[in-house]
Every structure is written in structure tokens, then in C-alpha cells.
What does this fold into?
Amino acid sequence: MYEGAIQDLIDELGRLPGVGPKSAQRIAFHLMQAEPADARRLADAITTVKDTVRFCARCFNVSEAEHCRICQDQRRDGTLLCVVEEARDVQAIERTREFRGRYHVLGGAISPIDGVGPDELHIAELIRRLDDEPVEELILATNPNVEGEATASYLSRLLEHLGVRVTRLASGLPVGGDLDYADEVTLGRAFSGRRELGA
Amino acid sequence: MGTYRDQGIVLRTYKLGETDRIVHLLTQGRGKVRAVAKGVRRPGSRFGGRLEPYSHVDLQLYEGRNLDIVNQAELLAPHAAIRADYATSAAAAVMTELTDAVAQEGERDNALFLLLRAGLQALDAGPGDPAVFVDAFLLRAASVVGFHVFTDACAVCRTPGRHVFLSVKAGGALCADCAPPGTRAVDTRVIDAVATFSRGGEWSALPGLAREAPAARATAASYARAFAEHHLDRRFKAYDAVPRP
It folds into this structure.
């Protein structure tokens, strides 16, 4: 155990996800030996994030204004709405440069075993957006795991009477992978979701 | 410590680090096993798709000090239809939540394994009315771990017969002499529904039986939940997520 400020820093760093006591100690000593300007820049970045970053009032993506950059962008296609679990999923899809519509971040996925139900997610806000905005296609881009599938199934059932086309991201083989190593569930989905060449 | 092979059903998973998962399994030979599945959250993982909850898998594991490590996994039954539907997924979550709570590590429980496998197969067979399978599973699982509900005899004095006073604490139907004052009698169809839920046997017949007497079924379902939660001393978080007719 150290005393005073250095132990306080180790304790705080140790509360971060994935940082154990040894790592916390190593980072604390690294910061202590770093240039004062470097340490101050890190401290400023943390306080700025806490002071200025919030969730977009429309899509719940991270934002520094009331509405995020994507919601403000008029060049975005307002008829396409992609539903994701977390704000970091927005970045993953943006990196593909394939999608030019808007997003809606649910803030998690339905997980009955963890007691997370539809009321804990931004589903009511999604329904309001479908009333207010000219959405024609809703793309469910929740994770292809048990929670993501349950959420997609719940939403598709909830939205089937709203007259919006509801689609789900395709599942299949990873690019660069070997067919031989694919698991049966993934390969089965790749088969059921096959498409015509040249289409 | 070495490798061993067993078949198991995935009960639930937890994220571990960047790409790993901790998997809780009910195995046929060793009871509950907690194991690390490395790299399964990567899109190109060799067996990530095989270790999703409710999958029935043939496994090779490496014995660890605290957690075992999954070396290989082959699918015996993916039960993919369960995960594709919200209602069946929620119903399966109740089954695996209960199993995860009562199964013991290192204690073989073949009856519980076969019950869970049968329950998941029933859910996988079709959407229909998944709640009725949950009601049956609660009472059948309670019976497997030692709390069988009495329906053919009084739970206190063991007098045979169709008694109409139901008690959660006493463990089933009570005769008029044993029922505490003020206990309300129920319709005999409620006792019949509780008996059908708790009796081992064909799962496929359950939805039809439940449709015949919806009011009795609803009372029996509430009783099944109260019975399982009282005797297993747990509340099941997933229960309220299961849509009911």
C-alpha cells in the first residue's frame, strides 16, 4: 500500500474495466514519471468528456450538442433507420462506408436472464421516431447472439403493424475465412441467406 | 489436470476481456461446468456460434484450477429456432436460469440434464405457447431436485384422493382436515393442470391440455411459479419476460 495521492490514483484507475491492481499501479507510476503537460492533457480530456459529451436527444448516439453529427447531417437518407445496441456499434457501421441512413441506439439488448426488459431500452423513443420521421426501412443491426436475436424478434413483432419494412443484417461467413472451419449455425445462416450472383 | 470430453447444454455466457466468454454448461457427466471459451466473440471464431445459450454441444475441455478451458465444441442440437423468437427465447431463459441456480459443480445430475434437454427440444419444436413449457419445467425441475408437488394425496397426511386445497408451503394439495382455516378451495381442473405440469412425460401434449381450461391453467401457472420460487428459494428474473396468453 502506498500513501496519499499515489494510492488514490491507483484506486481510481483500478476501478476502470479491465484494469487490475497491478495494471493500475503500472499506469499510476507511468503517469507520475510522465511530463506534467502529458498528465494534464489526460486529466483535461477526461473532464471535458464528462462536461460536454452526452447522448443525442433523437438517436442516443454520443454527441457534444443536443443532436449528434449524423442526425444534423442533411445529406443522410432519412428513410433508412439502423437500430443498434450501443453507440460504439454506430462507429463500427460507419467504418464500412456502406450505410448512408440514420441510426437509433437502443442502449443495450433485451436479456430476460439479467432482468433487462424492453422498458429499459430506448424502444418507446424509436416508436415515436417512426411516427415523426419518414422512415421506410428499419434495419435491425443488433448483435447475432441470444440477446440481440431476442431484441430483433421483439422489435419485428412490435413493428409489424406499422407499415415499415423491417430488415435484419445478414449473417454468414467471415471474409478471408475457410468454409471448413465455419460452425454449423453460421454456415446454415449463410446458406439460408444466399443471394443470386450478379443481382 | 488434463483434457476430458463430455456433452453439455449452454446455460448462459458472460463476456470476459476483449474477445473471450465464460460459459456455464450443464454437462451430462460432471454436473455444472464453468469454462472459458477463448476468442469466441471474434467474427472468425472457430466455435463461437456453437457456444450460444441453449445449444447442446459435444465438448472437449481442459481442466483448469478454477475455470476449465473449451478446446473443441461440436454441435449436437443448435436449438436455433429458440433464439430466433422472443417468446421462446424468454421461456428458455427461465429454464436455464433455474438450472444454473440448482445444478452443482462436480455433481452429476442426469435427470436434470435430460429434463432440460427435453424442455429445450419442446421449445425448439415450435412457437405455439412457450409459457406452458415453462410452467411444466418449474414443477418438473423442482421434483428432480427433491421437491415434488403432491396432487394424488394430501401433502400433509398422505390420504390418497383428489384434494382441492392447494398450499405452496405444504407442498401440494391438502385434504379438508389438514388445510389451515381460511384456505380457499380450487377447481379440480386446477389440481389436474398442476398434476399434468409436474408429471414427467410428453411435452407436446401440454399446449393442448392448457387450451382446454384456460382459467385453471392460469391459476396452475401462478402456483407453479410460487412453488418453485418458495422451495428453491430463488426468484427467476426471466419469468416476467415470458409472454402469456
The CA atoms of residues 79 and 121 of chain B lie 7 Å apart.
